[in-house]
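Could you help me review a protein record that somebody else here produced? What it holds is a sequence and that sequence's fold in token form. I have pasted the whole thing underneath without changing anything:
=====
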Amino acid sequence: RLICTQPLKDLELALPPARFFRASRQAILNLDNVLSYEALPEGGLRVQLRASCTELVSRRRARHLRALLGE
């Protein structure tokens, strides 16, 4: 987990979209670090990342992440 003082919107625009994904208002994921994910009852996803870290993906963004991961 990295803490950044720059707005995530600015960071999102600077990162290559093929490798990074805006998971929610609070998080941007490096897609190379995604190990697996599971669907949540409310429609979002819980993503398991390397380094034993998990992150939640909002309901709005879940379908887009599945498409990026080819699922």
